[in-house]
Task: structure prediction
Amino acid sequence: MSAWQHVVSGLVSMVVSAGTYLVMHNLMAPPPEKVIDVPQIVGLTPDQARGLAEPMGLLLVIDGQRESESDKIAVGSVMEQRPLQGSRLKKGGELHAMLALPVAKVAVPAVVGQPLAAAQKAIADLGLKAGAVTEVPNVTVPVGAIIATEPPPGSQLRRGESVSLQVSKGGEQVQVPSLRGRGLGSARRALEQAGLVLGDVGKTSDDNAADGAVLRQDPAPGTAVAKGSKVNVVVND
Result:
C-alpha cells in the first residue's frame, strides 16, 4: 500500500471514530432536566396547592403553621411559599408552604376614669401598646384621668396594636396673672378678667411695700390652671 493510501485510510478511520463517538454520546447521555416555573399557591388550601403543584412535577412540603399578618388569608390556607411565584425549580423539586393560624385578638380594656399610669399598665398587661396621649379639657373627669380610648373599650385588636388615650386636663386652662404690688381690689379684678377667683388672703409685714399690696401669690404668675381656680395671696399688713 502506498503512502498516500495510508494517509487516506487514516483519515477515513478518524472520521468514522469521531462519528461513532458522537452517535454513542447522544444515545447514552441523559436528557436535560426539565425546569418548571413555580406557581402562586398563597391563599390556597393545602389540597388546592398540592393539586396544582404535583401535576407540574413539584413536591408540596408543609413547613408548619403560624399567625397570619393579613386578615385576607383564610385560616388553614397557605400564607407563605418558598420559593416565590416565578422562581424556577427542577422537576421533582420541593415547594415549601406555611399555613395560617387564627389571629389571636384581645379586647381593649375599660380604663375610663383611671389614672394615666394605671390605664397604660392595664393595656400593656394584655399585650397591647399604650399609644399617643392627648390632653383634653374636661370639667367632670379629674385631671390626669382617662376620658376615652381609641379604639373604644371592647374593640378586638391584635397583640402589639396601639390604643390611643385621651386624658383630662381639667376645665379650660388659663394663665395666672401677676398680682404682686396690686391692692386686693385690683388683684380681684385681674383674676376675674382671667376667669379665676381670689382665694385665701394671708397677711404679713414688709416695710418696703405699700400697705395692702400683694406680696406673694399661689399659684405663681404664668402658671396654667383650670378656669375658675382659686389664687391665694399674701398682702402687706
Q: What stands out?
A: The mean pLDDT is 88. The radius of gyration is 43 Å. Residues 129 and 162 are 4 Å apart (CA to CA).
